[in-house]
Here is the input.
Amino acid sequence: MKIKKSSLLVVAGMAVLLAGCGNHATSTNNTKTDNTPKTETVKRSQNDQTQAAADQSTANANTATDNNSQSNQQATAQNNQNANNAQTKEFNNQAQAASYVTNQPGYTTGNQQGLPTVNLGDGITGTLNSGAGQQMLQWNEGNWSFTVRASAVQGQDPTPTAKQIVNELQTFYLPAPQNHGVGTFDIATNTYTLTWQKNNKVYSVSGSSPSDVIAKAVNAGKNE
Here is the structure.
């Protein structure tokens, strides 16, 4: 009888021991399970961070592009304004301003007698003065005096340029000088200027071609 009780005690003890080990294993497994990273959640978080970084990079690139575009537009607008503005000289009185214009190279009071004449179209006749390796074709329209200079040495002919200018001035109207205006078109040096006087001020523009300087003078005349 004592032996049976001892056996029962041993069996009971072993059962308690095994139950304790089982609980410890379950707790350990639960702990491990709790410490296991949530794979899908981590992936979504990483993807969200990557997308956010990409969106920020795109936004920064767009901002830089917009800033560059705005800067270019501002620079272009400033260059156009500077190109269209005439240089202005102010004198003490109207007579001094008028004298400044009439002393510019290429200014004449009218067709010079005894020189060959050239039909420039639209009822306008110019006179051709040749010498010293150059040819000067001159004519007047209203208060404007125009001269086209060409290099005879280089075989240049001023007539086509003069006819082009006369034709353009039938469409584009230059500012009306109060007393005098002078246009010098030097195809030998690619120098083109228009200068005119109003009251005690003298306005002047230059350009890279006859058409360019005419357009600038027309624009400048609107802002006088």
